Each structure stands twice: as C-alpha cells, then as structure tokens.
Amino acid sequence: MLTITDLHKSFETADAPMPVLRGVDMEIATGECVALTGESGSGKSTLLHLVAALDTFDRGSITLDGQEFSGMGDTARANLRRTRIGVIFQQFNLIPSLSVGDNLSFHARLSDRYDAAWQAELTERLGLSELVHRWPEQLSGGQQQRVAVGRAIAARPALVLADEPTGNLDEATGSAVMDLLLDLVAETQATLLMVTHSGALAARLNRRIHLRHGRVAEVAAA
Amino acid sequence: MTGLILRTLLSHWRSRPFQIVTLLLGLIVATALWSGVQAINAEARASYAQAAATLGTDRFDSLRPRGAQRFDQRAYVALRRAGWLVSPIVEGDLRLDGARFRVLGIDPVTAPADLPARPDLQGDALTGFLGQAGLILTGAQTAGRLPADADLPPVRVMDGIAPRTLVMDIGTAQRLLGMSGQLSRLIVLPEAQDGIPPLAVAGIEWNRIAPRGADGGIAALTDSFHLNLTAFGFLAFAVGLFIVYSSIGLAFEQRKPMLRTLRALGVPLRLLMLVMVVELTALALLAGIAGVALGYLIAASLLPDVAATLQGLYGAQVSGTLSLRPAWWLTGLAIAMGGAGLAAADTLWRTARMPLLSAALPEAWHGAQRRAQRVQGIAALGCFALAAVLSQTASSLTAGFVLMGALLIGAALSLPVMLSVILGLGARRARGPLAQWGWADARQQMSRLSLALMALLLALSANIGVGTMVMSFRDTFTGWLDQRLVAEVYVTASDAAQGQEIQRWAQGRVDAVLPIWSTETRLGDMPASIYGVAQHATYSDHWPLIEELPDAWQSLASGQAAMINEQMAGRRDLSPGDRITVPLPDGGEWPMIVAAIYSDYGNPTDQVMVDVDLLSERFPDIERLRFALRTDQTAEIIAEARDRFALPSDQITDQAAIKALSLAIFERTFTVTGALNVLTLAVAALALLTAMLTLQLMRLPWLAPLWAMGLTRAALARAELLKVMALALLTAILAIPVGLGVAWVLTNVINVTAFGWRLPMNVYPADWLRLIGLSLLTAAIAAGLPVLRLARTAPRTLLGVFASER
Ligand SMILES: Nc1ncnc2c1ncn2[C@@H]1O[C@H](COP(=O)(O)OP(=O)(O)O)[C@@H](O)[C@H]1O
Ligand SMILES: [Mg+2]
C-alpha cells in the first residue's frame, strides 16, 4: 500500500544544503506493522514526516494506495492527512485547551468519521473513561500518550505513523501503550510504520527496516 | 469541520481569560479614544454649520454699511422701494445672568423661505411672533439655560436653531438689544440683482459680503484645535493598537503548537486562516460596539469643557451635549475592524508561512535583531531629514502636521537603536556575571518590548508637547493680558449719548479716561478692525510691541503712522516702515506707515491701531461706547458708575475679573488635555503590561537555567522589575527632547499657520520630573503582575523547560 522509491531530502543550512535522505526505497503491504530503526540523526523522523505528508521532498516518490505525493498541493496534503493517516508524536501534541474527551474524538470529528459507539469502546479500552473531563495537563505521560493513540485510531486511518511513541515513557508504561496500539491497529486493519530505537519493541512487529546515512541499510523479518 | 475548528481556536481563550480581556480592552480603548475625539469634532462642526444656517451667512450675500456696526432702518425701506430684494437682520449679544446668548431678529415676511425658523411660522405662532409681546424661538437646550426670572417674551422650542441662539422678530430684537430703529445687516435674497446698491438710494455706502460657506468661517479658526484633538485621538488609537498587536502576538505564540497539531491532523491552511479571520472579526465587532459606546461617554463628559474652550478662545458656540449620529457609529465599528486587521496582519501572515514542523534550529535573534534595527535606524534618519526640511519650509497646516508625524515616527523608530546602544555600553561596563547577564538580557528583551516602549515614548512626548504648548499659551496670554489690560476699569456705554455722559462724569472722578473706539472695514480684500487709542503713558509704557520704529507712539498722534497686530503683519507680509492705506467713509484715503507690530493673542482678525481723535474725525460714524478708566479706587468707581448709569454687570468690568475669566477658560482647556493625557498614558501602560506577559512566557527557557544555577525566583523577579523600570526611565528621558520638538512644532509652525501668531515657547522642567515619575509608575504597574507571577512560578514549570527536549 505504501511505496517509496529513490527518496531524497536535504535541509538548507547556513553554508550548503545538508542531505538527510539519499535514495530511500521501501515497500509496505496493507496490514503490515513495520519498525523503522537507525541511529539518532539517521533521518527516521524526517522520513516519517514525509510519509505523513507533513513535509515535501526533493526527489523520488511516495505513493499511498497508488496516490502519488509529489506535486500535491497544500490542501490535497491536508486532506490526505485528515482522511487517511493517523500520527502519534513523541511529545503527544494534545490540544491543551480541549478536554481529554474532546481531544480523543477530535480527529474523527474533523474527518467526519465520528462514531459514538466506537469512540466509547475505544475510550473504555484505553482506560480513559474516568478521565474524559480532565485537561491534558492533568494527565501523566502514559495517559497522555494513550489519548494520542486514541485520537489517531478513532478516525480509522489506513496508515498509522508513530515517532518513538514510547520515547518519553518508562518501560512498563511504554509497553502497556504499545500493547494497546498494536491491538487497535490489528483490529482496524491499519498499516503501521513506527520509529523506535528499542530492539525489543521492534521485535514485536512484522518487519524491521534499518536506516543508515539516509539509506535503507537492511531489511529484516522480525 | 469549520465549526469544530472555530470552537477549538476559541477554547484557547477559556484557559487564558486575561489574554482575551487585554485584547478586547486594547481594541475597546483604541476605538473609544478615536471615536470619542471624532464625536467631539463632529458635534462642534455641526454646531458651526447650524449657526451659519440660522444666521443665513452660509448661503446668502449680506449688505453691511461701510464703517459702521448698524444703520437706520429707513435705509432698508429706501432700498426696498428702489427694488432691492433684501431682508433686514438685527443681531447682537444678550447677557442674562452671566450667560451669553446670540439674538437674531428677522422679518418673517421678507426673510428667505429656507432660513431656519422661518417655515414653521404660521397661524398662531406668526401672530405671536409679530405681536406686541413677541415670541422667542430657540432650541430645547438653550431654552433650558434661559434664566427663569428674566423679563423675556414667551419662548417656543424648535429644532434646527443653533446653540445659544434666540430667534425673534426684528421689533422684539431691537427692544431687547436697545437698538430701536436700527438694523445690523441686510440679507440679499437669491433672486435679487448682483452688485452693490448705489450711494444715492439710501445715503449709505454698502459692503457686499459673500457667503462664508457651511461652517460660517469659524472652522478656519477652530481647525487647529480640532486638528490637535484629532492628532491626540489618532495617537491614542495607535497606542491602543500596540496592545492589540501584542496580545494577538501572545495568543499566536501560545497557540502555535495547537495550530501545528491542527495542521498535522489535516486541517487545510486556507480553512484555518479563514476561521482565524472569522474569529478576529467577531472579536473586533464586539470590541467595536463597546468601544464606540465608551467613546460616546468620553466625548459626552469632555464636551462641556471643549465647548467652554471654543467659546472662550474663539467665540465659537458649540452645543454642550452630544447627539448620536449613525454615521459615527459605523465609522467607529469600521475603525475597530480596520485596527484589528492591522494589528493582526503580522500574525495572520506568520500563520500562513508557519512551517508545519517546528524548526530544528533556534531562531538566530542576534542577527535578526541587528538587521531590524539597522532598517529602523535608516527609516528614522529619513523621517528626521524630512522633519528638518519641513521645519524650515512648512507653511500650511497640513505640512505642519506632516512635520509632527515625521518627528514622532522618527523618534519611535530610533528608540530601539538608542536603547540598544545604551544597554550595550552598560553591558561592556558591567562587572560580575549576573550584571552582565542583566544588561545583555535587557537588550535581548528589547525586540519584544520595543513596540510597547515606543507606545510609551509617543504617549510621553505627546504629553510633554501638548502640555508645554498649553502652559506656554497660558503664561504668555496672562502675561500679555497684564500688559494689555493695564487700566483698572473697562466700561461700555449703552449708547452714544450715555457714552458722552460717562466720559464727562469720569473726567472729574478718575486719573485718566481713555476712549477705545473702533470700526470694521476692509483693507484690500480682507476685513480688518481699526482701533483708536488715546495718547497716554498707559499704552506707551505697557503695550506689548514685537517690532517698532523709533518714537512709534509719538508718530501715531501725527496721523502719519499706525500700529498693526502680528496676525496682519504675517498675513500681509508687512514690517515696520511699510505703507498701508485705509479707505475712508467719505471715499478718501488715509495712507500711513507701519510704526510697530504688536502681539494680539486669540484675535482672529487683522487689526490696525491709530490715534483715537484722528479716527473719530475721519470715521464720524464709529461707536463711541468703550472707555478704559485709570484709578486707584476700582471698587468705588465701579459701584458709582453702576448706580449712576444703570449699567449691567457685563458693561462695566474690572481688569482682575477679565483675567480671572480667561484663566478659568484655560482651566477648562487643561481639563480636556489632561484627561486625554491620562488616557494615552493608561493605554501605554496596558501595552507594556501585555508585552511583558508575552515576553515572560517565552523567556521561561532563558530564566530556568539561572534558577537551576541557584538564583531564587524572587531574585529573578526583582531583576526583571529593575530591568523594565530602567527601560521605562531611559524612554522617559528620551521622550523629553521629542516632546519639546512637538511643542516647538505646535507653537512655531502649526500655531503660526493656523492663527497668524507665534507663541513664545517656555519650558517646564518640573513637569518633566512629574512625567518621569509617572512613567516609572506606569512601568511598575505594568510589570507588577508578570513579575509577581514569575516569583510564584512553580518549580515544576521551570523543570519542565529541561524535560521537554525538541
Ligand atoms: N528542519 C531542519 N533543518 C535543518 N536540519 C534538520 C531539520 N530537521 C532535521 N534536520 C537534520 O536532519 C538530520 C536527521 O534528523 P532526524 O530525521 O530528526 O533524525 P532521527 O533519525 O534522529 O529522527 C539531523 O542531522 C538533523 O539535524
Ligand atoms: Mg527523531
């Protein structure tokens, strides 16, 4: 469902453009759960942002279910993010002025896919039922990340992207959030691409793609 | 989707109620001051126009006798018989219980049909109007002011009559004004012939006076006053926009993560912008309505003082109460919207260009700030250059205001550069790491605070400039009154016969009787008054001369020389030694040399002063009513004259009372300028407060390390307070020269072009100290809340700075 070919991306710096991705190729099938690993600074987040249509690339192509990213306008990319993709950030990025409940249903309502029953079930399974009337700042990190997972999944996106979702959490909390995420992804038949530097986490997914110096260094079945 | 986004954006304010309050407050105050001043101006202009319409001077030509204030009504009859379509008018001032009213006597039969008050005269009203008892027509407000016990004909209230004006039949007016058989002028009906009636018809030589336009000519006089008010209103509006700008900027900084998240979740940029504009429009509408209402209150409370000032300084009659005008509501709302748009433009632009992903590298503020300051510095130099050129060449009111604008904008733009230089010097001299950090940090804060500091600078310099002008005017004017009103008692007779009686009586009772007789005439194509004064030490010792030839006073007696006022010298480009020619009623001419120029503050018209004996010889028709009396028994003389000649109190005044009156007028002016000054300063304080709040939020990451290194929160708060106060102090000191520049422009450029006389400018250092104190107070109040919040910041919040890595 996701095809990336010869993807190039560089950032402008003071003196010369700095290449970050230099020809990334990969293919991910529908329903697959893939871990993206690599050293810090190897370009994982950059790649994820490109797949999330948050940023534009210099050369190559990304297609999602046959839809080509390059040449897409701002509005088209916004539509894509709203309707097809769910993103989970390391910093959670909840909306501080909205209650937990409103945050949870936000993306679903935004994309017109709000389903009260599904929303209630999701809230229940994420263990957030008691917390829907609280503000994000009153939650622990693990709770906040569960809200972020719920927000992404509630809209039933075809592709879920996560950038070190457990990076700010301790091991036990992180693993609990992971369980929930993987369950929900499987249940909604979504495809998952997740950046992580934890070998243990990567091992729980179907496949692992390792980035080095802006290229795919190895692909390994988990 | 749109509703959801709007609700989400609005949810931000729920958690920051203070922010929305300052935003709305800024917009409300800006709109209120602007529209309040506009309301005052509109009311005054409407009053002028109404006065002109009531008097008929806006549309109709008038005939006046040459060299006299009034004429025999038989001349009117003769003109009508000769086929001239004219209608008679009797005009004069009536004092009742100290209040002044303008009496207008018309003839309803011949008056033009569209003269106000005329069409409503029918049936009963017309009979009453023309009847023996008479009938007074006047506006509701004026009717309320008439003393209850005055011996007046019945009063009927009518719309459309100018403030403080009483319209009545010719006969009634003649009786009330003591002008039996006399008329003031004739209105030439639209269908009448052109030209001037020949001398043969009525034995009088006429001047035909063209309509003076809708404002009756008074606007030219009061323009400067209104322009001053407008400038004030505009300045306050600009300062208010600073607040709106910084609170919108603050909201943007805080909402940035939210906006990013919204965009990441797939909200198209265009929709996001649209919703933000909708939000802004709604807020602006809300604030606009409140602002216009507040402006109305401000205008209504200031209007009586403004009316008193205009009446006292220029003799302009302005209604003391405000009427509501729909156009004014609409412009007020438009101003609020436009202002909000202007203040938000930057934020909207930044939202549009905001990268979806936060930049990995922190903003290089050093370079950016230096670049911005260089641009500002160059722009400031441009403004100053323009101001320098205009200060030499400005010869119109508009040029004067452009000069003031260039000066103020240049000063505002150069403020950050100057402060940066001063702070840089301080940093270089500082010892110890903390002091060094303090100076450098103040410099870095500048980029955010500079807008608010500019607002403070503008408010302070407007304060100093207007204050200096008004106080200079008061001091000059009272000093000048001391010179000019040397005689102890001034008396005005009711008619010429009584004038002779008074003169005869006084000659035996007082040290000197000095006639002050005058006439109106035209010199060239402009009107001028000619005053006759006696040869007496009272004048030669005290009269305020600006420039003179040797033996100026002696040369007056010979009839070869005259003195002219500064206005006339300026307008006609005359200096001592130049020649002028006064036309005489008998058709002859009176050539004279200008022997001296005297200052004549507050007088709008040109004036020529000659010897009184020669004047009465050559203008046999002049009024011989006014006398100045020199005596050391003021009280006794006044009492005796009152008894003997049954003089009302406004016809005999002592010099002290006149001075007290003019000082009282100045007090009203001070009330108006003082209120506007306080309001602009308050607005500047609010601007500073919102800027501080914005700044504090962004500065937490910079302060947290200091806290981690062992500075207490209280120490950090103290340092913050000290820094803001220091910046305010520097700004206040820099505001002094700018304010003096503004005062110079007001007194030496704007005043000269508007009134024809230059105002000597005095300086008032005590006032500067007061302002420096006020600005420190302003800064302390503005910084108080943010500093208190800093001192109470939870350690967890400070720790959070380290926890959240990007
Ligand atoms: N906006 C940006 N501007 C300049 N350089 C960037 C930007 N974002 C990322 N980089 C650089 O690109 C490289 C890859 O970053 P990133 O994709 O975040 O790595 P990681 O694999 O740790 O997530 C790093 O060297 C980073 O400094
Ligand atoms: Mg990363």
UniProtKB/TrEMBL annotation, chain A:
The keyword Nucleotide-binding applies. InterPro entries: AAA+_ATPase, ABC_transporter-like_ATP-bd, ABC_transporter-like_CS, ABC_transpr_LolD-like, MacB-like_ATP-bd, P-loop_NTPase. CDD domains: ABC_MJ0796_LolCDE_FtsE. It comes from the Bacteria. Keywords: ATP-binding, Cell inner membrane, Cell membrane, Membrane, Nucleotide-binding, Transport. One of its GO terms (molecular function) is transmembrane transporter activity. Gene3D superfamilies: P-loop containing nucleotide triphosphate hydrolases. Belongs to the ABC transporter superfamily. Macrolide exporter (TC 3.A.1.122) family. This is Putative ABC transport system ATP-binding protein. It comes from Pontivivens marinum.
UniProtKB/TrEMBL annotation, chain B:
It is found in: Cell membrane. It comes from Pontivivens marinum. InterPro entries: ABC3_permease_C, Membrane_comp_ABC_pdt. It is a multi-pass membrane protein. The keyword GTP-binding does not apply. Keywords: Cell membrane, Membrane, Transmembrane, Transmembrane helix. The keyword Transmembrane applies. This is Putative ABC transport system permease protein. Its main location: membrane. Residues 231-354, 677-795 form the ABC3 transporter permease C-terminal domain.
